[in-house]
Specification:
Chain lengths: 229, 127
């Protein structure tokens, strides 16, 4: 469903990704792990069509990725980029007006699940509730690819738990593939089918989580401790 | 909140273990319906694909059966449940004995120690 073929990305001559080959199939939740600056966000932005590879090809569902891939890809940014003067309900309406695949009923359901007040102004939302709202907006789109850049980072354990539960509840695993970058591996390990480990712009491992446990008796964290020395 | 899983064995089999233990304790009765895959995933904070695999594994052992369009149910076949009860007992004992061997205990010491422990426990609960 997602394919990267010998992808290299340079920023001002500095290599962010080098000759990356990657294949992801639908029906999976995949974690992208690695230290800061290793190329995780770059990978997501490339698949979302927000930036372009310096070399190589990226396809989603067989289609070469450019900015129009937004119709196939729901992307949760690491940043908070919303209109502070909107309230939660208006933000959901705004998203519904921008994306034809946005399912408003589903958004309403996830909003209720996340216990977000539809009348709360965005500029008054806590960081945790902004994190929850991002999940609402990202998962309410009915698209084959969901990309999430650090959905858990900087949030307290209660919020992280509600986000993990929201993911389990509202991802359509028959039709979607989800790619998540995170440092909070322990939190998310049990909901991952696969993980990809990246270091200095190169992929150093791509494993099925259960297989790793069966064959090597190792969790993701243990594997990383061994591999990132 | 949910308990966490050990890293040394696959999550699907640890989840299957938990369900088996619930059946042994009678928290799940023969013929009881298991939560749907999605519900179970939310309860245990695991991937729905993992729960699917757990249910498939348990189905393979005939401990549960899936009725089309209705869900997954604990078997009402007593023979299978009795057999599971025996099997889990043997597994647990073999773990315990292995642990004792690792620490250098001999068979007689284990036997005497276990009997003494059980006797004392009985004494405690009679007081």
């Amino acid at each position: 469903m997602i394919e990267l073929n010998q992808v290299t990305k340079k920023y001002m001559g500095k290599v962010a990704l080098r000759d990356v080959d990657l294949q992801l199939t639908k029906g999976k939740i995949v974690g992208l792990v690695g230290p800061n600056g290793s190329g995780k966000s770059t990978t997501l932005k490339l698949i979302a069509g927000l930036i372009h590879p310096t070399k190589g090809h990226i396809t989603v569902n067989g289609v070469e990725v450019d900015h129009r891939i937004a119709s196939q890809v729901s992307y949760l940014s690491e940043l908070d980029e919303y209109y502070g003067f909107y309230n939660v309900g208006q933000t959901i309406d705004f998203y519904a007006s921008q994306f034809p695949d946005f399912n408003k009923e589903k958004a309403e359901e996830i909003r209720a699940f996340m216990k977000l007040d539809p009348n709360a102004k965005l500029k008054h939302l806590s960081k945790g509730n902004r994190g929850r709202l991002k999940i609402v907006l990202t998962l309410a789109r009915e698209v084959p690819v969901i990309l999430m850049d650090e959905p858990l980072s900087g949030l307290d354990p209660m919020v992280r738990d509600s986000i993990v539960k929201g993911l389990i509840s509202y991802i359509d695993l028959e039709n979607q593939v989800v790619l998540i970058t995170t440092h909070e591996i322990k939190e998310i390990e049990f909901i991952l089918d696969e993980f990809i480990a990246i270091k200095d712009g190169e992929i150093i491992g791509h494993h099925n989580v259960e297989q790793l446990r069966t064959e090597q008796n190792m969790s993701i964290v243990e594997w990383m401790t061994n591999s990132y020395q | 909140m949910t308990d966490t899983f050990q890293s040394s064995s696959p999550i699907y089999s640890q989840l299957a273990d938990r369900i088996n233990r619930k059946i042994l304790r009678g928290e799940l009765q023969p013929g009881d319906k298991l939560p749907s895959v999605r519900e179970m995933a939310i309860q245990s904070n695991v991937n729905p694909n993992t729960v699917q695999r757990t249910y498939r594994e348990l189905e393979g052992m005939n401990i549960v059966e899936t009725k089309r369009g209705q869900g997954t149910f604990v078997t009402e076949n007593q023979e299978i449940l009795t057999e599971m009860r025996e099997r889990l007992k043997e597994e647990e004992i073999s773990q315990f004995v292995k642990g004792m061997y690792d620490m250098g205990y001999a068979d007689e010491e284990i036997e005497v120690g276990l009997n003494k422990f059980l006797q004392e426990k009985k004494g405690d609960s009679e007081q």
